[in-house]
Amino acid sequence: MLNYLSSELRGLKKLKILDLNLLNSFGENNVFHDPNASVLKFKPPKFLVSFRINFEGDPFNEKLLSEFTSNVQQCHKLQHLNLRFIDKLDNIKLSEALIWACFFKNLQNLKTLTFKRDFFSSEEFEGNQAFLEGFQHLKNLEVLKLSLVSCMSESPPIIFTCLL
Amino acid sequence: MEAIPNSSLVLSSSQHLSPQSHKIRPMFQNKAKWRCSASSDFSYIKKYKPKMLTLIHFIRIGDEQTRTSRVRNLRMAMMSNKRLSCLIFDKHATNQILQLLSSTTHCQKLAFLGENGRCDARGKEDFKSLIRLKRCRDLSDLKMNFAARAKSGKDKCSIIYQAN
Q1: Does the beta carbon of A35 lie under 8 angstroms from any beta carbon of chain B?
Q2: Does the ipTM surpass 0.90?
Q3: B121: which chain A residues are within 8 Å (Cβ-Cβ)?
Q4: pLDDT value at B66 more than 80
Q5: In chain A, which residues have their Cβ closer than 8 Å to the Cβ of B125?
Q6: Residue A45: which residues within 8 A CB-CB, separation 6 or more?
Q7: Which chain B residues touch A8 with a CB distance below 8 Å?
Q8: What is the value of pTM for the model shown?
Q9: Interstrand relation of A143-149 and A159-160 (parallel, antiparallel or unpaired)
Q10: Measuring CA to CA, which residue among B61, B58, B92, B57 is closest to residue B75?
């Protein structure tokens, strides 16, 4: 179903703004239900200027993330990006941080970035730090809204929310 | 009364407000004096030619025959309104809603705010139809909600008015 959606939307040549709410979209009561699928396989139309997508709880690994970022960075005119990853994520590993850094390097037209990712704590500091350093690649960024929340009970929550 | 630029019309069932009533309540936003009585032929759409149309709890009110008739009449009214560029639906998009889309190929903005992620057989058929948007060649702004999570009526109204 997700491939079908990607394919149909790519047929809309004038589409510039896309806002997809896929929250809990792979649950058993949802049309996308597929244990092997992930929203990260969604391929946005290439002419987007603004892209917002949120999803929750579906498979998340570095291979899928790499595929997703590769697809999004093909939107060469992208100026506004809003990504919300919610639930069931671990701290950022160094290998994941490198994927994000590479992604940001390829988003040189980006002016606004909103990024929400849960389970971000002081543990695995190396990856978290590398992830934060990746934002320096966004040379034309004017607005950054960053929300990184630790939900781990054994450590105090660290919330980064900054508006530059 | 002549058409006014950027006018917005909301068609809502009053079921929202009063469980006893299933009447359709049309209301022009920002133009309180434009409130009209419900009309089965939607003549006020032909007359005032709103640029934006929002349907709240609109399609499913009444029996099958009533709904079919209502959609057919609304579709005819919409076809006569070439100014219509924005269409917003709050409910799971049924085939009846999709019939409306076929009369709005010139729409630039579409928003499906209801939970369109239902996975029963009917939901899947509706979904397949819903994403056949290629006929909307002028579409530049698309908001789709495939979440399965229910929201209260109050929340939905809030979302709809934010979208407007």
Answers
A1: no
A2: no
A3: none
A4: no
A5: none
A6: A9, A10, A12, A15, A18, A75
A7: 131-134
A8: 0.79
A9: antiparallel
A10: B58
Residue A3: exposure state from Cβ atoms within 10 A (0-12, 13-18, ≥19): exposed
**pLDDT score of B32:** 40
| Structure confidence at residue A122 as a pLDDT band (50, 70, 90) | low
* CB atoms B138 and A14 under 8 Å: yes
Residues of A in contact with B137 (CB under 8 A): 12-14
Q: Which one of A16, A22, A31 has the shortest CB-CB distance to B140? A: A16
Interface-testing mutation among B110, B140, B151, with chain A (most A C-beta atoms within 10 A): B140
Residues of chain B contacting A, Cβ within 8 Å: 116-119, 123-124, 127-128, 131-134, 136-149
Q: What angle do CA A125, A131, A135 make, to 5 degrees?
A: 140
Domain A2-160 has CATH 3.80.10: yes
Comparison of pLDDT for A50 and A94, the residue scoring more: A50
Whole-angstrom distance, CA of residue A146 vs CA of residue A163: 8
**Residues B38, B23: contact at Cβ < 8 Å?**
yes
Domain range annotation of chain A: 2-160
Which amino acid is residue A4, in one-letter code? Y
| Rounded average pLDDT over A17-29 | 74
